[in-house]
Write a structure and sequence with these properties.
The complex is a heterodimer of chains A (about 350) and B (about 240). Chain A has about 350 residues and is mainly alpha-helical. Helix content of chain A is about 75%, strand content about 0%. Chain A has 15 helices and 2 strands. Chain A has a two-stranded antiparallel ribbon. In chain A, a hairpin with a 2-residue loop joins strand 1 and strand 2. Chain A is globular, with a radius of gyration of 22 Å. With about 240 residues, chain B is α/β, with parallel strands linked by helices. The chains are: A mainly alpha (about 350), B alpha/beta (about 240).
Chain lengths: ~350, ~240
Amino acid sequence: MSSKFQYDLVALVIFALVVAFGVPAVMNYDGFELNTFARYLALAIVSMALSLSWGTAGLLNLGQAATFGMGSYAMAMHLKLRASDGLPDFMGWNNVETLPWLWVPFESLTFTLLAGLLVPAFIGGLIAIFMFRARIAGVFVAIITLAFLVAFQLLFINQQGLTGGQNGLTGLAQMSLFGWTVDPYSMGFYNLVAGCLVVALAFGVYLTHSKFGLILRAIREDADRARFFGYNVASYQTLVFCISAALAGWAGMLYTLVLEFASPTYMSVSFSLAIVIWCAVGGRESVIAAAFGAIVVNMLEGRLSDVFVEGWHLILGVIFVLVVMFMPRGIYGLLSDSVRKIRRIRRTRDQRGVETFPNT
Amino acid sequence: MEQLQVTDLQVEFGGLRAVDGLSFSVQEGEILCLLGPNGAGKSTTLDLICGKTQPTDGSIQLNGVEISQMLEFRRARLGIGRKFQVPSVYKNLTVDENLSVARSRRPGMWNALTRLSLTDAREAASILDRVNLGAKRHEMAGNLSHGETQWLEIAMLIAQDSKLILMDEPTAGMTIQETERTAEIFRSLSDNHTLIVVEHDMSFVRTVADRIIVMNRGAMLAEGTIEEIEANEDVKTAYLGH
């Protein structure tokens, strides 16, 4: 086991303990505060999902919000059906008489949970196959995924009878899981979200330290070289895109549970860019750092907007500019660089000590 | 047995014929050296065999299978390995990790998903000792010297264990001792590998080559053992220009 893997495991355990026990204690087990923090944790999952494709494989996916939105809407559709007798209310306002076939299977929770993971993975994979078989790389990946996001959001809003359009899906029921009604302001719900995040992070840590993660890093550095070793680069890139999209969908489902509605703003360009910022602030090379970045930035956003009602966007913007300028690899880069520097100083000091006192 | 059969190979880059009607074959276990003045098409020939460049005409057969239209990763899976003129190792990965990437007998994703990143590197550790990099296993490849980088890429090709290895100027930038060591490694590799080597260092070629092909302007000028080539008048003219 490499030392880096050990560091990551330790970091994961500490992170899990803090999130599971530390945070609720600090929040005084207050339902409202816990709900707010559960929202950050859900966003942390989508940020770590981006770090898999962007940090590990070097594929900047600006369409992450689209897959997040798909998961979010899958969950919202299920909860909306549970909340309404037969036809959801907004369909009536849009002169839709019968339940569209697309909605029918969402009666089932099992289907909903599967769809929330697999639909984003499938659509992400479809785009990925077209891009990566054509060997599109670098900034063009960002442009194509961004274009897809814009088109997808537009399509989604235009299908008002099917999706609730600009209003999104509101008035949702609470999810019931094995007879447990999920109250988003309860400790149990907080634990559910925290558990999901920790599982997602453990999966991410494993993935980055598996040979799969190593090949992705190799592809990021020199895709052609990897091809000459016999790796099918396109399929590696496609799979990581699918995994990242599925995780984003998972985060989206949790997000709907937290906020109790789904809105097309979850698929907006600004939300997608926000994910990139969280990931960059935390450090895209590590899934844990990316999750941490999402939590920190969102907390900061929450606190700043409380204190500076007018100018908080400006302050946040300045912070981002500073981060990009002075810590291009995020908090993670800052940490790993300083650890390396301390080690080097200690090593040179040890060597000098030997030179000065050769007999001791 | 003929392992590689190249017939009437041709490639054009915007009107320039870099390789023009080249035909040759390589036997299993042979070390074939490609010589020729700059621009003769030696590296391009290797590019065509490994799939970096697509030929405009002609055929390349590996063990009787036509490969000239295959994607490069499929050719690699059939057993073609390539060392580049500019050493291309992964500078941001450690030496161990580089070796692990290179060890690609099972390049599929399922295998990659169910293994930790360094399992393969450890198996390949003896290869590093062979090229004197055993002490630098945890070093970033970007921190290696030029000669060490050359050797790392050679180690990666040994780890890849391709049946046919294409080496583009493997000793460039090496000291005399390093070059001698490389020659030894190549000789021991030829027990169960076939090598095609592009090289300018004549003393190196003299030690390793079983057979030599001299290229000029994309075509074959002469073929034979080192003695035959050194006695060939056409070769002298091509090199000295008169």
